Amino acid sequence: MPPRRGCRQHCWRGPAARRCRPPWRSFDPSGRRCRPSLRRCRSPTPGRGPAFATIWAMLRHLSLLVRAMRPRHWLKNGFVLAPAVFSGHAFDVPVLGRAAATALAFCLAASAGYLVNDVLDRESDRADPVKRRRPVASGEMAVPAALAWAAALFVAAVAITTLQGTAVLLALAGYIAITTLYSVYLKVVPILEALVLASGFLVRLVAGALAIRVVISHWLVICGFLLALLLAFGKRMPEAVHPSQRTPTYPVSFLHDVVTMLAGVTLVAYTLYTVAPDTTAKFGSRALLLTVPMVLFGVLRYLLLLHREGAQDPTSTLFADRPLLLAVAAWAVAAGAIVHFGGPR
Question: Who contacts 177 (Cβ-Cβ below 8 Å, separation ≥6)?
Fold first, then answer.
């Protein structure tokens, strides 16, 4: 039943649809109390037809999908491009195209894994002040829709890697298996979950090398794995203060010791990589050693943010902190120039 003329309408978002209701203690100008009946609000786009409403709903669902896919985290798949850069093929268009296609496949597979993880963690995410805003946890995206999109993204990733060869396809299959096991079971197992996360970055490196058919340096593999392990344990430090059912339990002092140890080991490993005989022979000099101060600054800056602000997400931390972002960009430019203009390979 519609309210009396003059009653004020207040809109609210209900679980099923957007509706209007008058305030319970409001009166119209004649002094009569407004009826507390509910009725649907007018269309948020008056004068538009049903076709526009359908398009609007599709665009909204697409925006929710993009949020759930977390494209900002695709930066992690830059590990796939590392073999192309450090083998001197950064400006070789055919080689770089194969590496980029493989990186795209891993981006889609990673987004599918995020959707599956959000479905499994939706109850615990609702208790988190940040994660509760995710589309699945907030209820904006239904669970069946999230699983359907995850399956579609997995299929698209497999289709892309099929064109790159059987070896790359097997690497992607291993990555999907690792992420699935992590989301379903291994996420709550201390230490093992961090090793599994780091192994995902290792698979990215191997897949990038297989895509362009080069032999990756064992020093590069070690550096990449140690860096990924550092970020994995660093991500657990804020979570150790406010643990949930879907996160492993670590003592804060243990995480401090592990992160400090991994930071030092990572710096030592990268320094040894820059002066290794095969590295100097490939690039014709020890100029790559000049990038060590940039790596040192980046690691120390990350540790500072971790202890001072509780940098939970490494990707968000990178984009939010300008000094850290500039250090990473400077290292990428310097290393790329040294590798490209370096000497005989």
Answer: none
**Contact call for residues 201 and 78 (beta carbons, < 8 A):** no
- Report pTM: 0.77
pLDDT in tens, the chain (345 residues): 444 444 444 443 444 434 444 443 333 444 444 444 444 444 454 446 677 778 877 888 888 899 999 998 898 898 999 998 888 887 888 898 999 999 999 999 999 999 998 998 888 888 877 788 889 888 888 899 999 999 999 999 999 999 988 999 999 999 999 998 888 888 888 899 999 999 999 999 999 999 999 988 888 899 999 999 999 998 888 777 766 666 778 888 899 999 999 999 999 999 999 999 988 888 888 889 999 999 999 999 999 888 876 656 677 777 788 999 999 999 989 988 888 776 544
- Please report, as a single letter, which amino acid is at residue 11: C
Contact 113, 197 (CB under 8 A): no
Q: Which residues pair with 19 in a beta bridge?
A: 12, 40
Q: What is the 3-state composition of the chain as percent helix, strand, coil, each rounded to the nearest 5?
A: 70, 5, 25
Instruction: Count other Cβ atoms within 10 Å, centred on residue 155.
Output: 12
Distance between CA 57 and CA 45 in Å, rounded?
Answer: 12
d(C-alpha 171, C-alpha 176), whole Å: 9
- Count of residues in the chain: 345
256 touches 234 (CB < 8 A): no
The Cα 292–Cα 123 span in angstroms is: 43
